[in-house]
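hey can u run this one w/ 2-oxo-3-(phosphonooxy)propanoic acid bound, need the C-alpha cells asap thx
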Amino acid sequence: MASSSTKLVFSPPFTSSPCSKSSPKSSSLLSFLHHTTSTPVSLKLSHSPSHSRCSASFAVSNVLKTVTSTETSVLNYPQDLDSGSSNPRPTILVSEKLGEAGLEVLRSFGNVECLYDLSPDDLSSKISSCDALIVRSGTKVTRQVFEEAKGRLKVVGRAGVGIDNVDLQAATEFGCLVVNAPTANTVAAAEHGIALLTAMARNVAQADASVKAGKWQRSKYVGVSVVGKTLAIMGFGKVGSEVARRAKGLGMHVIAHDPYAPADRARALGVELVSFDQAVSTADFISLHMPLTPTTSKVFNDETFAKVKKGVRIINVARGGVIDEDALVRALDSGVVAQAALDVFTEEPPPKESKLVQHENVTVTPHLGASTKEAQEGVAIEIAEAVVGALKGELSATAVNAPMVPAEVLSELSPYVVLAEKLGRLAVQLVAGGSGIKNIRVVYRSARDQDDLDTRLLRAMITKGIIEPISASFVNLVNADFTAKQKGLRISEERIGIDSSPEFPVDSIQVQISNVDSKFASAVSDSGDISIEGKVKYGKPHLTCVGSFAVDVSLEGNLILCRQVDQPGMIGHVGNILGEHNVNVSFMSVGRTHRRKQAIMAIGVDEEPNKETLQKIGGVPAIEEFVFLEL
Ligand SMILES: NC(=O)C1=CN([C@@H]2O[C@H](COP(=O)(O)OP(=O)(O)OC[C@H]3O[C@@H](n4cnc5c(N)ncnc54)[C@H](O)[C@@H]3O)[C@@H](O)[C@H]2O)C=CC1
Ligand SMILES: O=C(O)C(=O)COP(=O)(O)O
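ok here u go:
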C-alpha cells in the first residue's frame, strides 16, 4: 500500500479530498511536455495525508446502459463532418502545386479542389466552404482567412517547412490546427544550398549568361576555391546539418551558430558551435538556415555586415526576411560582401527592378530549395497524411500550434479525455449564476512517473467542458489555453503520486473551482471549493465524488444530484417520480457522510426531466437540495 516516506510539500500543500480512496505516496512534479503558450498554468508538488474518510458508496443498480463511444477526437471540431450534409466528404482546397501522390491521398478522403491562382480576396471568399487548406510558401494565410472561414476551416497544411506565411496566432485563436511537412524537403534544400555555394564561387550563372550572349570572358570569371575555406552555418537544424555534412565533403572547415542546437549533434559532424559574432567574423562563406521569426528578422543588417570578414560570400536558402536587403546591397556595393547567392526574398517574387536581384555579384533562383521531384512527392504525401489525420480529429506528429501527441498516448488517454470534458461540464454547472469563475484547480492522482503523464489533452478537455456551457466559444486542443486566458481563467494542475499499478495513466481526476458560490451546496468541499472527482472504470467515465460525498455514477446521459436526509425509501420515491414521467434511470448511487444523516443521491437519466418532474423531486420532504446537470 502507500509508502509516504518522502515529505515533500511545496506551498501551498494540497489536502486530498476526503473522497479520495487511493493512498498517496511521495509526489513529484508533473512535467509539462512542451507547454508552449503563455497561459497561466501553474503546477505544484504536493503530498497528501494518508487518510481516507470516504463515506460508503454503493451502486444501487447495475449499469443499465453503457456510455457512448469514447473514441477520441481531440480536435473536436465545431461541426461534425458527417452531420446534416448531403455530402459528408470534407472539402480540401489546395492553393499551390502539390505532388500527385499527395493529391491521391487527399482524394481518397475528401473532395479536392486545386486552385493555384487565387488572389487574397478570392481565397478569403472561397475559404468558408473548405474544411482544409493546403499551401506552400506562396499563399499568405492571414487572420482574414481564418475570420472568413467562419469556423469551417479545421486544418491548414503547409506542404514544406517554413510556416512564416501562416498567421499562427490567428489559427490558434480560431482553433484551426496547422501542420507542416518538416522532413521531406531537407535534403533538397541542402543540395540547393551547396549548388548555390559552388555556383557562386565559380560564377556559373554569370558565365553562362555571358557565353549565351556571345562572349568568351575567361579572365572575368575567375572564381574562388572552397576547399580549406571556413563556412559558417547559421541555424544548425535539419537543413543546416545536411549542408554541413556536404560542405565537409568539399573540404571546408565548418562552424555553426545556433543557440538551440545540441552540441553533441554538431560534434558528431565535426562542426564547432560558436557565437553569432564569432561565426560572422571568421567565415569566408555564410550559409543561412534559420527560420524567419521576430528574432531572426533582418538579423543580417548594417551592424552585422560591419562585423564580417571583408569579401565574405553569403548563401540564403532560408527566408529573405532574415536579411535586410537594402543593407546587403550596400555591403555588396562596398565590397564588404563579395557575392551573394539567394533563393529567397523578402517579397516573392521580388520587384523586377530590385537592385539586389540585378546586382552583378548576386546569383538568384526563384525559391527552388524544395523543388526536386523527389522532395515534392515526399512533401505532398507527408502533408496529405497529416491533413487527413487532422480531419479525422487526430493530432498530427507535425502539428505546429498544438501539442504533438503520439498515437499510442492518444489511444491510452482516450477514455480520460472523455472523463475530463464531462468533469469540466459538471463542475461549471454547479456554479451559481453570476459568480465569476477565475481559479480552477485540477488534481490528477496517478501511479505514473512524473515524465510519463502528459496532461495537456486532459487540461484542454476540462477547459472545453468548463467554457463551452457558459459561452459561445468553441474550444479544442488547439485553442484551449488561449481561450482560457482570454476568459481570465487560471488553471493550475497538480499531480499526486499514488502507490498503484502504473498500467493506467490516471487513477482519478478532480476538478475544483474556487471562490464561487454553488447552486448545490453539497458540491462544496471542506476547503470551500466546488469539487468533483471522476475515474475511468471499465473504460467508461464515472463520477466518484461530489464535494465531500463519494458517489459512483456512470457519466452518461444527464445527471440529477439530490441531497437528502439518509432514510429508507428515498431511492424508490425519486425513482417512482422519474418513472411516472417516463424518464429512464441509467444509474443511481448514494453517498453519505454518516448513517441516517445526510446523503447524496446521484441519478443518471437518459431523458431530460421536465419542469414538473423536477418540481416533484424537489417537493419530496427529505430532499434538501437538488440540481439537474447536462453532460
Ligand atoms: N528555400 C527553400 O525552398 C527552403 C527553405 N527552408 C527554410 O529553411 C529553414 C530551416 O529549415 P529546417 O532546417 O528544416 O528547420 P529546423 O527547424 O530543423 O532548423 C532551424 C534551426 O534554426 C535554429 N535557429 C532558430 N533561431 C535561430 C537563431 N536566432 N539563430 C540561429 N539559429 C536559429 C533552430 O534552433 C534550428 O536548429 C526553414 O525555416 C525554412 O524557412 C526549408 C526548406 C526549403
Ligand atoms: O519548405 C520550405 O520552407 C520552403 O521554403 C519550400 O517552399 P515551397 O514549398 O517550395 O514554396
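The two ends are 35 Å apart (CA to CA). anyway lmk if its weird
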